[in-house]
């Protein structure tokens, strides 16, 4: 589902899929739990100067919530309501992933080397920086196409991260499949690169450059939370007041 590697003060979280045939990295309860466990380990080992890069294997960064899992739960229960309840549970569980990333005491970079859809796109956007390949993959908020409204914290994060009202409209009210160059213009993506390898290289370089600043992790997380007050309020993340240690 995911692996965590540590290179000095750099953490690398890789979405691996549950099998060779499962490379969409859909966010089932088990995948969400694995990601949160990895992020908890990152937090426990964090030092000033740490940074996180999140990447994935295969053609997808993440294809959002695992709707097949929800349907299977409904089929076992013989109830469509059970399937809907399981999807609501995944929406609730995923709040924790977004909260973990927004409060992580270090810079975070997402290397998007494939499709990022719905909750998968929110996963990428929960990082401080997003790099994307222009050779393959799209960003896609699919909720309108499947007849689903956006969870409140999705909307709050999109408002906090995308400054242009027109870009927000195009992303969520046209269900556009946004490629890398357009994503840069919309302010979703920091930079576009020709290949998946170049995306990962750029993400690693950015994380290493930021880590070299050796900022206080507590101060970094506190400033980040203050920068996105609406979504952090919804997620129950409180502002922290951090003062210089040498006063």
TrEMBL record:
The keyword Lipid metabolism applies. It comes from the Eukaryota. One of its GO terms (biological process) is fatty acid beta-oxidation. Keywords: Lipid metabolism. Gene3D superfamilies: 2-enoyl-CoA Hydratase, Chain A, domain 1. Belongs to the enoyl-CoA hydratase/isomerase family. This is Delta(3)-Delta(2)-enoyl-CoA isomerase. It comes from Buddleja alternifolia.
